[in-house]
Design goal:
Layout (H helix, E strand, L loop, with lengths): L2 H9 L9 H9 L12 H30 L5 H12 L2 H11 L3 H24 L3 H20 L9 H24 L6 H33 L3 H6 L51 E6 L5 E4 H5 L4 E8 L10 E10 L1 H7 L7 E6 L4 E5 H5 L5 E6 L2 E2 L9 E3 L13 E7 L22 E6 L5 E2 L2 E10 L5 E8 L4 E3 L1 E2 L9 E10 L2 E11 L21 E7 L1
Parallel strand pairs: 1-10, 12-19
Antiparallel strand pairs: 1-2, 3-4, 4-7, 5-6, 5-10, 7-8, 7-9, 11-13, 13-17, 14-15, 14-18, 16-17, 18-19
The chain binds the ligand Nc1nc2c(c(=O)[nH]1)N[C@H]1C(S)=C(S)[C@@H](COP(=O)(O)O)O[C@H]1N2 and molybdenum atom.
Length: 548
């Protein structure tokens, strides 16, 4: 809204002398207004109210952001509200978001939060023109609501009340001030001065809010930045250097992704709206609960342990058949089993409830960590310290289990407990407490719907049955017989296996191609179609190809 537009609204006064009920009320209520301006268009009043609401709301949020420089990023009003929204998101909506927005789901959520807040602020601003006290109280109530959702986050501190409370107060004050000025401005006697005051006040508040908001945000980013700390981490040398897998783990088919997923392309799935920025100097891991000898270690202590490299394919329970939420990396970590043994897991304990700094909890079977597989606390992937979004400085990994039951990022707490007693984050949201990775296979080349020249068509893709390994991959064309694909070399049973198939004399026309894998135990991937809830999708991936 510009000054010209508000001016235009007022210009309409002469043409429409009907008394505006809004201004009449304002006259009785808050400020006395000269009859001359009664005709100011109602629309102009609404627009101006909405503008004031937005500016006042913005001022509040900006101050909230500034306070959050001290109280922590996740306590900022918008972040807290967003995190709360994530926590109450029903499973169907979460699935919808993952399916449609993928790793941009956070951006979409933030847009949603900002839009909702803007709408509320605008409505409140309009309301303020006739019911200033009520609107002021409402604004303060928004602040209290924000403070409540902030302080009820799993790892909140009492100070998390502050940003939203102050935001509410500042917004209420700004709303009051600007509304009173705006209503007064209609007064004839000092019209020019009043108007200038209103415009300057509104513009000034808006500019100030933007400056403080952006400044606060930049300050938060700087203050909680761990890039330097990450750069300084000296990765421990693995006790035994793992040789590079042979080149034959990758069939050289154009368009097929590499055997190791580049870190920059590795999928990301988590509930963190503001990524946790954990300084390794502050990091501690606590192992406690049903153990004989609970203990706590620092990052330096962790780094002094025995480290191993391990190639492992990580996948998400939310990955649909043929989906992208799977990646393969070389991880550097210290085995988890010796740490559990040092703590002395008590009889009856069957669950590790791991917790991240942002309060997310993940439940994993104690058995899976102690049965000899390479469960680890990882500090690096693909030769570099973990990126912040993949769990810096430390994350858990257990081969064979979906990420939501094994791969805790920013992990700081292992509570040894039982599945009977404890629920992890996703359990009450409809996901199974335990979830081994299901056998899956995917056709990556050609892309579904692609047109390819007749002759020999090369199909290629990947298959995984983490920890059981992949023993065979077969493809089926147009419901014909299943034909054995050529498997690339196997790295470990914990990694995916790429495959290719030369489809000779592919006839012209549209064809359907399907794939299925057999895992290391000899079990063939099921064709039964199941969605991702409660413990992973099943069914065969299929594509259509046009041969021309
Ligand atoms: N702290 C934390 N750890 C987490 C999650 C999370 O939301 N928060 N998501 C889990 C899920 S569902 C998956 S699939 C993997 C994904 O790991 P990535 O983002 O590094 O690929 O992390 C797991 N660890
Ligand atoms: Mo996941």
């Amino acid at each position: 809204m510009t000054e010209q537009q508000t001016g235009g609204a007022e210009g309409g006064a002469a043409d429409s002398p009907a008394p505006d009920p809004e201004e009449e009320e304002a006259q009785q209520g808050v400020v006395s207004i000269s009859p001359r301006t009664r005709g100011a268009s109602r629309l102009g009043g609404i627009a101006r109210g909405a503008l004031i609401g937005l500016v006042a709301g913005g001022a509040g949020l900006a101050v909230g952001e500034l306070v959050a420089v001290v109280t922590g990023e996740a306590s900022a009003p918008v972040t807290a509200a967003g995190n709360w929204a994530i926590s109450i998101t029903p499973t169907w909506l979460e699935q919808f978001a993952i399916r449609n927005f993928g790793s941009n789901d956070k951006t979409v959520l933030l847009i949603g939060v900002y839009t909702t807040l803007a709408l509320l602020a605008a409505i409140d601003g309009v309301l303020a023109r006739t019911r200033l006290i009520l609107a002021g109280i409402l604004t303060a109530v928004f602040g209290v609501v924000g403070a409540t959702v902030a302080v009820t986050r799993p790892v909140a501190e009492t100070s998390w009340l502050l940003p939203s409370l102050l935001a509410g107060l500042v917004a209420a004050a700004a709303l009051w001030w600007l509304t009173v000025m705006s209503l007064k401005e209609s007064d004839s006697a000092a019209k020019q001065t009043e108007r200038r005051r209103f415009v300057v006040g509104t513009l000034g508040t808006a500019v100030g809010a933007l400056a403080v908001g952006y400044g606060g945000n930049a300050w938060i980013k700087k203050r909680y930045n761990v890039a330097d700390a990450r750069a300084k981490v000296v990765l421990p040398k693995p006790a035994k250097v793992l040789p590079k897998p042979p080149a034959s783990v990758h069939p050289k088919v154009p368009g097929l992704g590499p055997f190791f997923t580049p870190t920059s392309e590795f999928y990301r799935v988590d509930t963190a709206l503001a990524l946790p920025h954990v300084d390794p100097r502050d990091w501690k891991l606590k192992i406690h609960g049903m153990v004989d000898r609970p203990f706590e270690i620092t990052f330096d202590e962790l780094l002094s342990y025995r480290f191993e490299e391990h190639d492992l394919t990580l996948t998400c329970v939310s990955n649909e058949v043929g989906g992208p939420y799977v990646g393969n990396a070389r991880w550097l970590g210290t085995p988890l089993a010796p740490l559990l043994r040092r703590a002395g897991v008590q009889r009856g304990a069957d669950m590790i409830l791991s917790k991240s700094v942002d309060g997310l909890t993940i439940g994993s079977p104690v058995e899976a960590v102690l049965d000899g597989r390479q469960a680890m606390l990882a500090v690096a992937m693909n030769g570099e310290a973990l990126p912040v979004k993949h769990g810096f400085p430390c994350r858990m990994l257990i081969p064979g289990l979906y990420g939501y039951v094994s791969a805790t990022k920013w992990v700081t707490d292992l509570d040894i407990t039982t599945f009977a007693k404890s629920d992890a984050y996703w359990t009450p949201r409809g996901y199974s407490p335990e979830a081994p990775v299901k056998t899956a296979s995917r056709i990556d080349v050609p892309k579904s719907g692609a047109t390819v020249p007749a002759g020999t068509v090369v199909l290629a893709g990947t298959a995984w049955a983490t920890h059981r390994g992949v023993a065979a991959v077969e493809v089926q064309i147009d419901n014909g017989p299943w034909r054995e694909a050529k498997l690339a070399a196997s790295d470990t049973p914990d990694t995916w296996r790429q495959w290719s198939y030369e489809w000779a004399n592919a006839p012209k026309g549209s064809h359907k191609v399907k794939v299925r894998a057999t895992d290391g135990t000899g079990a063939v991937q099921t064709s039964a179609v199941q969605g991702v809830v409660p413990n992973g999708a099943t069914g065969h991936h299929s594509i259509t190809v046009k041969v021309s």
